Amino acid sequence: MAGVAGRTPKSDNGMGSVPELEEDIRQLRADIAKLAEQLNVTGEHSYKAARRAAKEGVEQLRVQGEAAMEGLRGNAKDFEEQVLSTVREKPVTSLAIAAGLGFLFAMMSRR
């Protein structure tokens, strides 16, 4: 059995002496503490990166939502202008269509 850090055991039973074992245990504890610290730092970096990516995603979605709302507003304004121009051009026909739609909605709401 090979020893820690490249050392070879000196006793016949394949185990090192007590001071060597104690030193190996101290070294293992120090290594474990370093690993725990590195994992903690890595976790913090990962958390910060994930948080930054989430913020960027939220900002991008907000911008896309605002652009979509502007597009809808533009479409609604165009539709409104078309309806107004049609009503101005053909007021009697528009009034008849409005009355017909009102009648249909009234019939559907009774059921």
Account of the 3D structure:
The radius of gyration is 39 Å and the shape is rod-shaped. Helix 1 packs across helix 2. With 111 residues, the protein is mainly alpha-helical. It has one domain. The protein has two helices and no strands. The N terminus is likely disordered.
Strand segment count: 0
| Mean pLDDT over the full residue set | 85
Radius of gyration: 39 Å
Q: What kind of sheet is the major sheet?
A: none
Strand content: under 5%
- Overall, the morphology is rod-shaped
- The H-and-E topology, N to C, reads as HH
Low-confidence stretches: 1-6
How many structural domains in the coordinates?
1
So how many helices? 2
Structural class from helices and strands? mainly alpha
